[in-house]
Amino acid sequence: MAGIRTISPIGKWAFDAGRTARPGIISEFVEVADMPLAALSAGLRLGGGNAAFFRLLGRRPADVLGESFPELVTTGPDHLRDRLNRVAEGWEQRFRGSVTGLGSGGAERLTIVAGRMRAPGTAILLTVLPEAGPAAARAEQLSSVNDIEAKILQGIASGLSSLEMADKYYLSRQGIDYHVARLQRKFKARNRVELVSRAFATGLLDSTAWPPRVPESRRAS
């Protein structure tokens, strides 16, 4: 029987990011990234997803878009719906859970990470990952960036160009491009969109704020 168990929910009272995402940037990296990503709209309905997500689901987009996401994940969706609603309403910053019953492989256990983002038409950004073993999980938690890398990562996630970041951070455009390329190598990302996606998936970028922030705990001293 499909089911869900909580890994590490993070609670917070009445969270409100107070800012809205630049239109298009969220849907852009959802569509281009190679890891399964989806956007849930009002009512936790599946508003969009990338090719990797629909491959995992084993369904055509036309068959599931607009459907309630909890109904796609488990035969007992009440708990999942409650947790995702808490994220959507701002009572929890992020929900990380382990689920079964998603996709053609039904019995496979997967990790989902749900974060609230204030963007037009998007309530929750959802990342779906294979359940990592202890060693992989430890490696993920050790991921960190230095201060300038954190600023550049935040800038990319906000939709800033190299020229805009160069002006904002008092670096040359070549300097910005150097750090971007270094980050892409570090996270094995083929492009900036994929870099941001991986940063969200590992928790390096906090998806509950806009623009997204790299927590101080993930910045190398």
UniProtKB/TrEMBL annotation:
Keywords: DNA-binding. GO terms for molecular function: DNA binding. It comes from the Bacteria. This is DNA-binding CsgD family transcriptional regulator. It comes from Amycolatopsis umgeniensis. InterPro entries: PAS_4, Sig_transdc_resp-reg_C-effctor, Tscrpt_reg_LuxR_C, WH-like_DNA-bd_sf. GO terms for biological process: regulation of DNA-templated transcription. Residues 138-203 form the HTH luxR-type domain. The keyword Ion transport does not apply.
